[in-house]
Amino acid sequence: MEENTLKAQTSEETPESILKLKEVQQQIDEIKSKLEGLSKKVPENKLSMIVFSGDLDKILASFIIATGAGAMGMEVVMFFTFWGTSVLRDTSKQVGAKDLMGKMFGAMLPKGACSVKLSKMNMAGMGTKMMKSLMKKKNVASLKQMIEMAGELGVQIYVCEMTMDLMGFKREEMIDYPNISFCGVAKFLEEAMKSKVQLFI
Amino acid sequence: MSEEIKADKVMDLKGMPCPMPVVKVSKGIKEIQVGQVLEAVTTDPGALADFPAWARTSGNEIVKTEQGEGTIRFYIKRKV
User: Fold this and answer.
1) Do B23 and A72 touch (CB under 8 A)?
2) Digits of tens for pLDDT over chain A (201 positions)?
3) What is the separation, in whole angstroms, between the first and last Cα of chain B?
4) Which residue among A72, A73, A141 places its CB closest to the CB of B20?
5) Tens digit of pLDDT for each residue in B2-49?
6) ipTM for the whole predicted complex goes beyond 0.90
7) Domain count of the fold of chain A
8) What is the count of structural domains for chain B?
9) Can you give the residue range of the structural domain that contains A61?
10) Does the beta carbon of A197 lie under 8 angstroms from any beta carbon of chain B?
11) How many helices, marked H, and strands, marked E, lie in chain B?
12) In a mutagenesis test of the B interface, which of A139, A142, A196 is the best target, namely the one with the most B β-carbons within 10 Å?
């Protein structure tokens, strides 16, 4: 007799409690999807930087910030575009099959980290030479060493595909760097949107 | 006398300017175990601001800072 009433009670409550459970489940799902949306908006511990300048001083600053950020545990992404791109050319690599404009740009623009000049006080190369010897004396890492260090720290380098095409640079003439790839503006913006820090140099 | 801190690893960063000390220390700290102490000696005056900033963001702890003549000695405990 007692068992029967118990059964009756539970069977009476079942449809209602199922309904309630479904409601709760629905609410949890709603909260979950809202949280997911929010977490996408929270910036990551990342630094994204546009390196537009091809000047030694500015590129040095970019790499100091990039390696510093890497040391501080940040993910670092550098986008090289326009004048900045020529820094990433490897002096030891020769590529043929360039058109006239490509050859001209190739010859006129600095090739590689060793041939970039100061933005100020270059004085036909004298200033840059003096700065370099001063850097050596003061034990400041050279641009080449900085690039190597950035590679060790896992700094990702993206190169603007449009600049490459515009200036007639070939992928084969770029430096051997562990994390180098080629992209357009959308890739940069995607990374920038996720980054806590964004810089344009 | 203040208590002696036993370092598990010592790094000589004398003569290195920014950003090398911080870059080297971030590598060096990974070579010791969590809870162990890294001793780093630098001549970079900027390190007085940089090392604490690096420690705060990387989640490690500077347990002691000693300023000598032209040198700064940091004792950093690996926390993460």
Assistant:
1) no
2) 455 555 555 555 688 888 889 999 999 999 999 998 888 778 899 999 999 999 999 999 999 999 999 999 999 999 999 999 999 999 888 777 778 888 888 888 888 888 888 988 888 888 998 899 989 898 888 999 999 999 999 999 999 999 998 988 989 999 999 999 999 888 899 899 999 999 999
3) 30
4) A141
5) 568 899 999 999 999 889 999 999 999 999 999 999 999 999 988 998
6) no
7) 2
8) 1
9) 43-200
10) no
11) 2, 4
12) A139
Asked if B16 lies within 8 A of A153 by C-beta distance, the reply is no
In a domain? residue B1: no
What is the nearest CA distance from A194 to chain B, expressed in angstroms?
18
Overall size of chain A counted in residues = 201
Contacts of A140 in chain B (CB under 8 A): 17
Token pair for A193? 């949107």
CATH code for the domain of B67:
3.30.110.40
Q: Cα-Cα-Cα-Cα dihedral of A166, A171, A174, A179, to 10°?
A: 120
Query: Nearest by CB to B54, which of A67, A72, A139?
Result: A72
Token pair 């990702």: residue:
A156
The pTM for the full model equals 0.80
Are residues A33 and A61 both part of a single domain? no
Phi, psi for A158 (deg, rounded to 5): -115, 140
Q: Which residue has the tokens 């940091």?
A: B74
A58 and A94 share one domain: yes
